[in-house]
Automatic annotation (TrEMBL):
It comes from Manacus vitellinus (golden-collared manakin). Belongs to the two pore domain potassium channel (TC 1.A.1.8) family. PANTHER family: POTASSIUM CHANNEL SUBFAMILY K MEMBER 16 (PTHR11003:SF104), POTASSIUM CHANNEL, SUBFAMILY K (PTHR11003). This is Potassium channel subfamily K member 16. It is a multi-pass membrane protein. It is found in: Membrane.
Length: 186
């Protein structure tokens, strides 16, 4: 038991309290490290794990920034395509840019700030306000850790999550960060 504990395995784990290091949680942890959110509910507990985490972050954070930059360029290319589609003869350039910006902001706001709190409030049992708070704190990379998705030790420890829930949340975080970066760029 002591050897397992030292390696980060929860010896009290059972069907209602499994180890924190399943694939979904590991994927989520890796995402929170490279996005610099770091909620703090998952962390390496061994010296070897901590050293690995430092090197993972040293390489992962810059690679993630490069990835988000490329993702932002891809989104920007779609914005330019949308701009060409909206631009019609006789329509002023400023009017086209306003329409594109309105579409971009409203679509992103819905996809990354309005709808996710609905999902989080349904799955996690949070109010919409708590879901929105989590969404904003996450995408701003503040990451206090007071609200974390899939946190079994939260309000209902018997709650069962689908295995990919946290992985999908990590993907939402990456695309949400790319959208925000593009908002700041625009």
């Amino acid at each position: 038991l002591m050897e397992a504990w030292e390696k980060g395995v929860n010896p009290e784990g059972n069907s209602t309290n499994p180890s924190n290091w399943d694939f979904s949680n590991s994927f989520f942890f890796a995402g929170t490290v490279v996005t610099t959110i770091g909620y703090g509910n998952l962390s390496p507990s061994t010296v070897a794990g901590q050293i690995f985490c430092v090197f993972y972050a040293l390489f992962g954070v810059p690679l993630n920034l490069a990835f988000l930059n490329q993702l932002g360029k891809g989104l920007n290319a779609h914005l330019l395509t949308l701009e060409r589609w909206v631009q019609k003869p006789g329509r002023a350039q400023v009017q086209c840019q306003f329409i594109i910006l309105a579409i971009f902001l409203s679509t992103g706001t819905l996809l990354f700030l309005v709808f996710p709190p609905l999902v989080f409030s349904y799955v996690e049992g949070w109010s919409y306000g708590e879901g929105f708070y989590f969404t904003f704190i996450t995408l701003s990379t503040i990451g206090f850790g007071d609200y974390v998705v899939g946190k079994k030790e939260g309000t209902n420890p018997n709650k069962h999550y689908i295995p990919v829930y946290r992985s999908l949340t990590a993907i939402w975080i990456v695309f949400g960060l790319a959208w925000l970066a593009l908002v700041f760029n625009v």
